[in-house]
Write a structure and sequence with these properties.
By secondary structure, the chain is an alpha+beta fold. It is built from 18 helices and eight strands. It has a single domain, classed as Cytochrome p450 (Orthogonal Bundle). A hairpin with a 2-residue loop joins strand 4 (about 375) and strand 5 (about 380). This is Cytochrome P450.
């Protein structure tokens, strides 16, 4: 099959390669691995787990924070520093804000219209408008009541959980289901298995280099039964998950809006604001796509970030001790934190920042696409290049964050114990860049803050016990398969109540 594929792609690859050479005569491409005849860097593109580490090592090897690879005519540019990302994705956002087309994820699985993967076109702008109207950053208090209520539900579950990550998935998914569709509590849970499976398939298929069909689009015409075409079977199965995730909750909300019984949500508000003089079916499709994108983007990322935070706290009891001391100064016995306490709890805010920094949710940001030829620092950047910001490298820069391998929330505090505005906030890199920055980032940050503050107010996070009652030394293990999302593997720990007042506050018995 490899020989047949080579015969198919040689003419295309050679033509595209010649075009790049002609355009680059005046300025060189950024440094990178030596390009082989025909296939160029096809075999240099990382395809395993921890791609961000592979690209970071590649940048060190070529002593450059911007490197170039190409594979069968696809130009790939890695940005390995905050400066390069800011200079291009922020300051030149008019030509760096599109998304590359993906065959596996976009065409075969059908996610191409979703806001997060959509090119920078009118359909994308319309989806962003819907999200900004439903989740305006200027109104951060809009979802505070729901965030506090769902967090209290989580507090009641955690002491009895034998799978922390699964409990967090349920917590985040139920909250986002409420915000996005107005489907609340127990009613939301039947939707979760499909949603989790769909998000996992999306994260795998969206990983650059995970499937050869994205480098060799003609492979999409290979029949499913053909040797080596198992990606077609996966795409078919994963497309079914997308359809179910997109349609089921939307149809429930649409029906409730028609009956006048819908709970306010992104979907219900958008449906109620439709223009009756415009194409209704087209407007509904736009709302449906925006809603499923908001749901998917909000649930999986929040779980990964909070899971990373809890795991870090488990590994660092000294950090918990400092957090408990701060909380005890601000809260009375049995009191649970609210958002009004945030200014008085800088160390809690520092823990959130450090959790985002140490293990960023998307260590490689979703790829951007360059829409015209550009020149940067003497290098030629070809039109249609896939631009990949290495968020992990940005947040592990030793000049910005000394000893970046250490979990140290105090790095964000000044000598007086207040948040230091001179230290770069990891949120500036974690939630995207330029015009593609996540519109719901303020909701995600608020959810993380209230969850971590509440968990630490109620509990000490301690290692699990073996059958003899001895603590099991905790280990931090992370998913290592090809994926865009960075998340810890399932782990166990104990949430030990700090006082009897916790039981009274939550209205439960933990004994």
């Amino acid at each position: 099959m490899n020989s047949a594929l080579a015969l198919l792609v040689v003419p295309i690859a050679y033509t595209l390669y010649k075009r790049h050479l002609e355009n680059a005569r005046q300025y060189p491409l950024p440094p990178g691995p030596k390009k082989l005849p025909i296939v160029e860097n096809l075999f240099h593109v990382p395809r395993g787990g921890y791609l961000w580490l592979d690209y970071a090592e590649m940048c060190r090897r070529y002593e450059s924070n911007i490197i170039h690879l190409s594979a069968l005519g696809n130009s790939i540019i890695i940005l390995n520093s905050a400066k390069a990302v800011s200079d291009l994705l922020d300051k030149r956002s008019s030509i760096y804000s599109s998304r590359p087309a993906t065959v596996m994820l976009g065409e075969l699985m059908g996610w191409g219209a979703a806001f997060i993967f959509r090119p920078n076109d009118e359909f994308w702008k319309a989806q962003r408008k819907i999200m900004n109207q439903a989740m305006p950053p200027t109104d951060p208090k809009r979802f505070h009541a729901q965030q506090i209520s769902s967090t209290h539900d989580l507090l009641r579950v955690l002491p009895h959980s034998d799978d922390v990550m699964k409990s967090l998935q349920t917590w985040a998914a139920v909250f986002i289901m409420d915000v996005t569709y107005g489907i609340q509590g127990e009613e939301a849970k039947p939707y979760l298995p499909t949603v989790m499976a769909a998000l996992e398939s999306m994260s795998v298929a969206g990983t650059p280099g995970a499937f050869y069909v994205d480098q060799i689009p003609i492979l999409k015409y290979v029949p499913e039964w053909f040797l080596g075409a198992d990606f077609k079977r996966k795409a078919r199965e994963w497309a079914k998950l997308r359809v179910e995730m997109t349609e089921s909750a939307f149809n429930v909300t649409k029906e409730r809006v028609a009956k006048g019984i819908a709970t306010p949500s992104l979907t219900s508000v958008a449906l109620e604001q439709m223009d009756p003089n415009q194409d209704i079916a087209q407007q509904e499709e736009l709302i449906k796509t925006a809603s499923v994108t908001a749901y998917g983007g909000g649930s999986d990322t929040t779980v990964a970030a909070l899971g990373a935070g809890i795991l870090a706290l488990l590994m660092h009891p000294e950090v918990q001790a400092k957090a408990h001391a701060e909380l005890d100064k601000v809260l009375g016995p049995g009191d649970l934190p609210t958002f009004s306490d945030e200014p008085s709890l800088p160390y809690i805010s520092a823990i959130v920042k450090e959790a985002l920094r140490e293990n960023p949710i998307t260590p490689l940001a979703f790829p951007h696409q360059l829409t015209q030829d550009d020149i940067y620092e003497g290098y030629f950047l070809p039109k249609d290049s896939i631009i990949m910001p290495n968020v992990w490298s940005i947040l592990h820069n030793e000049e910005e964050y000394p000893e970046p391998h250490l979990f140290n929330p105090s790095r964000f505090l000044d000598a007086d114990g207040k948040l230091n505005p001179d230290i770069k906030d990891p949120a500036s890199a974690v939630f995207g860049f330029g015009r593609r920055i996540c519109p719901g980032r303020h909701i995600a940050l608020a959810s993380l803050w209230i969850a971590i503050a509440s968990i630490l107010a109620c509990y000490t996070i301690e290692p699990d016990l073996d059958e003899d009652g001895n603590p099991i030394p905790p280990k931090a293990e992370w998913y290592s398969g090809p994926t865009l999302f960075n998340h810890p593997l399932a782990f166990k720990c104990r949430f030990v109540p700090r006082s009897k007042d916790v039981e009274a506050s939550l209205g439960i018995s933990l004994s």
